[in-house]
Amino acid sequence: MNTSVGNTARLIGAGLRALLVLTVLCGVLYPLAVTGIAQALFNDKANGSEIKDKSGRVVGSSLIGQTYNLPKQDPNDAEEAARPDLKWFQPRPSNGLGSNSVNTRYSLILSGATNRAGDNQDLIKWVTDAKAAVVADNSTAAYEVKPQDVPADAVTSSGSGLDPHISPEYAELQIHRVAERNGLTVAQVEKLVKDNTEGRTLGFMGEPRVNVLELNTALKALSEN
User: 156 pLDDT exceeds 80?
Assistant: First the structure.
């Protein structure tokens, strides 16, 4: 009996020592080491890829898309459709799988594709209406947008619904409207788009893209000068 009790006590002691050692190693030292390396070598990414305006205020993350809509006419009307604020570059449609009351700058809390079959009538109507809106919103007195000029990413959400980027073609289509709404020249806004266009990753992966939040942050800074 004493031997059994002694063995049990030794096993419990060994288990507690292992628990203590592993807790220190895995729960304290390892997280501190990883956090330290991340902060030292990848500070921006480790802190959420934050984007700041010229005053230093964090306005979002370069990894997550945002909408740029006008305030609701009736804040209590849940059925009121969002209206884009046309002084800003607009992102891809954000039709996702859910809604939330936490991140009110974006209509998603769940990500996921909203793709339907190419002959789905709801999808056809959605794309047709979205294309008509893009044409109407971006045509100005001096610049007419033609339906055939509207790129696919202007009327469809991304696979995740959270894409922060648009194509250079969609950004360029919005230049005249943004210039007019902000009292800027077309050349000034064209330069903004060019300066904020990213090339293919490593020169061959993916497609050229424009981060909408970064572009609108630069637009705000230019407009306030």
Answer: yes
- The answer to whether residues 56 and 34 belong to one domain is no
Average predicted confidence (pLDDT) for the chain: 85
Amino acid sitting at position 82: A
What are residue 59's phi and psi, to 5 degrees? -110, -5
- In the predicted model, what is the mean pLDDT of residues 127-151? 93
Please list the residues that pair with 165 across neighbouring strands. 211
Per the structure, the complete domain to which residue 146 belongs is given by 50-224
Task: Output the CA–CA distances (angstroms, integers) from residue 57 to 50, 52, 112, 151, 154, in the order listed.
Answer: 10, 5, 30, 33, 29
145 plus 95 within the same structural domain = yes
- Please check whether residues 146 and 184 belong to one and the same domain: yes
CA distances for 77 relative to 67, 71, 123, angstroms: 18, 12, 26
Q: Give 112: exposed, middle or buried? Use CB within 10 Å, 0-12, 13-18, 19+.
A: middle
Percentages of the chain per state (helix, strand, coil), in multiples of 5: 45, 10, 45
Query: Residue 143: is its pLDDT beyond 70?
Result: yes
Q: Which residues sit opposite 58 in a β-bridge?
A: 52
Q: What does 58-74 look like in DSSP terms, one character per residue? A: EEEETTS----BPPPSS
pTM (2 d.p.)? 0.77
Whether residues 143 and 38 fall in one domain: no
What tens digit of pLDDT does each residue of 75-122 get? 777 667 778 899 999 999 876 444 444 445 544 445 555 567 778 888
Within 25-90, residue ranges assigned H as helices are 30-41, 43-46
Distances (CA, A) of 112 to 7, 24, 57, 109, 148: 54, 38, 30, 10, 28
